[in-house]
Amino acid sequence: MKTITFTTEIQAPAEKVWEALWNEDTYKEWTKHFVPGSYYVSDWQIDGITRFLGPDGNGMVATITKLEKPYEVIFLHQGEIWDGIEKESIAEGAYEKYVLVESDGSTTLTVSVDVDEQYEAHMDEGFSKGLEEVKRIAEN
């Protein structure tokens, strides 16, 4: 497992960037670069449950370990969901971190993700293209 990091400068306040990341509709826009039709279900509670799902209902289950809206959220992946059943996976114990730092109306968004090397290229492409969508959404 290795950590890959993506950083982008967005000409918008942190609130607007957070909204672009986590609004149900805009989330679907930027995550289409991973799996078209992606969505999530979360209670937005520390130690609660967040499910990152594809249109077939399969995906990942995680918990939030840190939450400071609109500046930071850290997810700890706990397993996969296949056919409605939660199972352990190679991603168990992997972190996914979103940090937003605002300065003079501009926001630096940094995303760090722990990935197994076999998924690195997919995650690299998904986040590279996806964060461009986040930037476009937040700046408009």
Can you tell me about this structure?
- The chain has 140 residues and is α+β, with helices and mostly antiparallel strands.
- The protein has one domain: 2-Layer Sandwich (Alpha-D-Glucose-1,6-Bisphosphate, Chain A, domain 4).
- It has helices at 14-22, 24-31, 120-139; strands at 2-10, 39-42, 50-53, 59-68, 72-82, 85-87, 95-103, 106-115.
- Strands 1, 2, 3, 4, 5, 6, 7 and 8 form an 8-stranded antiparallel beta sheet that branches.
- A hairpin with a 3-residue loop joins strand 4 (59-68) and strand 5.
- Helix 1 packs across helix 2 and helix 1 packs across helix 3.
- It is globular, with a radius of gyration of 14 Å.
What is the secondary structure topology, with strand pairs?
Elements: E1 2-10, H1 14-22, H2 24-31, E2 39-42, E3 50-53, E4 59-68, E5 72-82, E6 85-87, E7 95-103, E8 106-115, H3 120-139
Antiparallel strand pairs: 1-8, 2-3, 3-4, 4-5, 5-6, 5-7, 7-8
